[in-house]
From TrEMBL:
Function in brief: Catalyzes the reduction of fatty acyl-CoA to fatty alcohols.
Protein name per Swiss-Prot or TrEMBL: Fatty acyl-CoA reductase
Gene Ontology molecular function: any one: alcohol-forming very long-chain fatty acyl-CoA reductase activity
Example GO biological process: wax biosynthetic process
Annotated organism of origin: Nannospalax galili (Northern Israeli blind subterranean mole rat)
Keywords, in A-Z order: Lipid biosynthesis, Lipid metabolism, Membrane, NADP, Oxidoreductase, Peroxisome, Transmembrane, Transmembrane helix
Gene3D superfamilies: NAD(P)-binding Rossmann-like Domain
UniProt family annotation: Belongs to the fatty acyl-CoA reductase family.
Length: 519
């Protein structure tokens, strides 16, 4: 067994956000590589009419946990769901549960957050700042605690171009923001939000930066580390390639382009697409847990989990790779053939939105109305464009993240751990792995998100061929109509038309004469 995996044997681990994308993969990997661990406490709230047990049952019965159930058949006995709501000021944990957590926990992984870019500042502060503060307080009372690992984001300081593994001060102290949320009403908060977030694009990145500051100021003697992943994508290899279960980040846009809704996107083609596979982030997180507990660094270390500095892939190349993957793995019932143009200024963006997004949506809604159905495409298109407007910032900027602490940690690992942790995608020598990764990503989206059967691929390809023919037919018809109208109204257009016709006629006559001579 590897050194890191052995460390987690007999440990009691507390994970927040274990029902989320990253949390689930973290829990899976811990059980798979350290089946001897004692217990994983998960802070979880009842949701969508499901009890805690039903939520845990659903996770354990998902495809993600198939391997774990083979390796650790009693995994269900090792998960201890604790009812909690991080939106509540006391986290809504019962006294008995709190007692158990305080006396038993060895390692805390704090993953829970609101990752919505449009979250109201009050909600984002509650989850990303106050809940972090409360958890720190709780952690400080844990008698056996060895490490507290906080998941932040590489974009918490996205207002800077070069970002080091340090905590940057915020203009307004987190404590002042927390206090003000108690007495300011929503209208005033709405008014001051743009001033507070300053040159950050949303409340998410702002409150994640405040969360880091809280860790820095209030962790006291705790052994704390912060991990900053960039754009977390589908898994690279573990537990199997392409696992993904939410539409955040690139996944939603990959679906929208594969289904033919998204046809143009305002993006900087030469900006770096800093996507990092979820298993790469989780492996680093587990290694950081071990290092922080065993080596007890004197100060809080920050680890960047990014790909751009070691193995950069540009948005332009990523777009081409995604489109190439659709050729092999098309999605079913596409609205139009997948094709995405990158636009670079306001005018072309608005133009292509009108031509490629709104016009087809209006035509399709008209067709739905004619056939007695409810129009829906324009609404869907407007939602997609709203989503894109929120993601645009991240596809139009490049950042440089230093990774000294991450590199230092990797060099501290045993050869066995390095084999497991140093996933190839973020190493410089494996640039060509991006194509393989993107193909698996698209396949994963098709299988696990869209729940489409792979047996339907030939039919999906046939559907795309039909769409291509309709596209050619439509363009030819449109050209002829426009041209007919033009030559009916303009003498110049008529002259050009006759010139082209006579040139074609001469060319054909010459061609026929020269073929006759050869015979
Ligand atoms: C060939 C070219 C291909 C190129 C690929 C290019 C990819 C570029 C990707 C750039 C990603 C940049 C991400 C940056 C991540 C920063 C990292 C982090 O720390 S942050 C961690 C990451 N955090 C995030 O990524 C959070 C981003 N997301 C949000 O903040 C919110 O979803 C929202 C505000 C955008 C929409 O809110 P709201 O409308 O109130 O409500 P809902 O949320 O309930 O969804 C409603 C509808 O929107 C739909 N939909 C949702 N997401 C996407 C999507 N990504 N996309 C498309 N569609 C999306 C959804 O399907 C639904 O449709 P329907 O069922 O109604 O038909
Ligand atoms: N995904 C990404 O691209 C990136 C993510 N990160 C960071 O990684 C971490 C995990 O993100 P990710 O897994 O993608 O996010 P998800 O949205 O998938 O998961 C969020 C988790 O937080 C939990 N949570 C939210 N609100 C509450 C609450 N009030 N009480 C209890 N639990 C709550 C959710 O529980 P529930 O299921 O009940 O809603 C869920 O388990 C976050 O800290 C995020 O900032 C950083 C960089 C990029």
């Amino acid at each position: 067994m590897s050194m890191v995996a052995a460390f987690y044997s007999n440990k009691s681990i507390l994970i927040t956000g274990a029902t989320g994308f990253l949390g689930k993969v973290l829990m899976e990997k811990l059980f798979r590589t350290s089946p001897q661990l004692k217990v994983i406490y998960i802070l979880i709230r009842p949701k969508a009419g499901q009890t805690l047990q039903e939520r845990v049952f659903q996770i354990l019965n998902s495809k993600l946990f198939e391997k774990v159930k083979e390796i650790c058949p009693n995994v269900h006995e090792k998960i201890r769901p604790i009812s909690a709501d991080l939106n509540q000021s006391d986290l809504a944990i019962s006294k008995e549960d709190m007692q158990e957590l305080l006396s038993g926990t060895n390692i805390v992984f704090h993953c829970a957050a609101t990752v919505r870019f449009d979250a109201h500042l009050r909600e984002a502060v509650q989850l990303n700042v106050i809940a972090t503060q409360k958890l720190l307080l709780m952690a400080s009372q844990m008698s056996k605690l060895e490490a507290f690992i906080h998941i932040s984001t590489a974009f918490s300081n996205c207002n800077l171009k070069r970002i080091d593994e340090v905590i940057y001060p915020c203009p307004v102290e987190p404590r002042k923001i927390i206090d003000s949320m108690e007495w300011l009403d929503d209208a005033i908060i709405d008014e001051i939000t743009p001033k507070l977030i300053g040159d950050r694009p949303n409340t998410y990145t702002y409150t994640k930066a405040l969360g880091e500051m809280v860790i820095h100021q209030e962790s006291g003697n705790l052994n704390v580390a912060i991990i900053r992943p960039s754009i977390v994508g589908a898994s690279w290899q573990e537990p199997f390639p392409g696992w993904i279960d939410n539409i955040n980040g690139p996944s939603g846009l990959i679906i929208a382009s594969g289904k033919g809704f998204l046809r143009s996107l305002r993006a900087t083609p030469m900006a770096i697409a800093d996507v990092i596979p979820v298993d790469t982030v989780v492996n680093l997180t587990i290694a950081v847990g071990w290092y922080t507990a065993v080596h007890r660094p004197k100060s809080t270390l920050i680890y960047h989990s990014t790909s751009g500095n070691l193995n950069p892939c540009l948005w332009h190349d990523m777009g081409l790779k995604v489109l190439a993957a659709f050729e092999k793995i098309p999605f079913e019932r596409a609205f139009r053939r997948p094709y995405v143009d990158f636009t670079t200024n306001n005018f072309t963006t608005q133009y292509w939105n009108a031509v490629s997004h709104w016009a087809p949506a209006i035509i399709y809604d008209f067709y739905l109305r004619l056939t007695g159905r409810k129009p829906r495409m324009l609404k869907l298109m407007n939602r997609l464009l709203r989503t894109i407007s929120m993601l645009e910032y991240f596809i139009n900027h490049s950042w440089e993240w230093s990774t000294n602490n991450t590199e230092m940690l990797l060099s501290e690992l045993s050869p066995e751990d390095q084999r497991v942790i140093l996933l190839p995608l973020c190493r410089p020598s494996h640039a060509n792995h991006w194509l393989e990764y993107i193909e698996n990503y698209v396949l994963g989206i098709k299988k696990y998100l869209l729940k489409e059967d792979l047996a339907g691929i030939p039919k999906a390809k046939e559907h795309l061929r039909r769409l291509r023919n309709i596209h050619y037919l439509f363009n030819t018809a449109l050209f002829l109509i426009v041209w007919r109208l033009l030559i009916a109204r303009s003498q110049t257009a008529r002259n050009v038309w006759f010139l082209i016709m006579s040139f074609c006629y001469k060319f054909l006559s010459y061609f026929r004469a020269s073929s006759a001579l050869k015979v």
